[in-house]
Amino acid sequence: MIAKKKHPKFYVPNFGAPNRKRVKERWRSQRGIDSKKRVKKKELGATPSIGYKNSEKVRYARPDGSFEVLVHNQNELMAVIQSKGSNVVRFAHDLSSRKRAMLRGIADKNNVRIVNKA
Predict the structure, then answer these.
(1) Considering the entire predicted model, what is its pTM?
(2) What whole-number distance in Å separates Cα of residue 60 and Cα of residue 67?
(3) 9 and 46 share a domain?
(4) Considering the domain boundaries, does residue 59 fall inside one?
(5) 63-68 LR contacts (CB < 8 Å, sep 24+)
(6) pLDDT given at position 15
(7) What is the pLDDT of residues 61-76, one digit of tens each?
C-alpha cells in the first residue's frame, strides 16, 4: 500500500450556503479584491498550495502501489513487459477493437494487468 498525504477538500467559498446551491463542488482560485478566502483567512477553509504535494516516489501511484502506463501499440506494451517495475497497463482510448484484442492476448500471456479491459 502506498501512503499518500491527506489533504482537505478545497471548496469555493460559501459552498453549501442555502443561497449558493448553484455553486458546484470544485476549486476555483479566488480573484475578488475583498475575498477573505484569497487573503487565506483560516475560518474559510484550506487553499491548494505546493505544501500538499506528494513526494515523487508516490506521486501518480495507484492505491495498490502500482503505476499506470498508457499503451498505444505493441512496442509500448513490450516495453512495459520488459521493465521490472510494478506497472499496470491502460489502453489508449482510440485503439481499435482488433488491436485491443491482440494486445490483450499478449498481456494475458505475460501476466500484465490491464486497467480497462473492455
Answers:
(1) 0.69
(2) 7
(3) yes
(4) no
(5) 63/1, 63/2, 64/1, 64/2, 65/1, 65/2, 66/113, 68/115
(6) 64
(7) 998 889 999 999 999 9
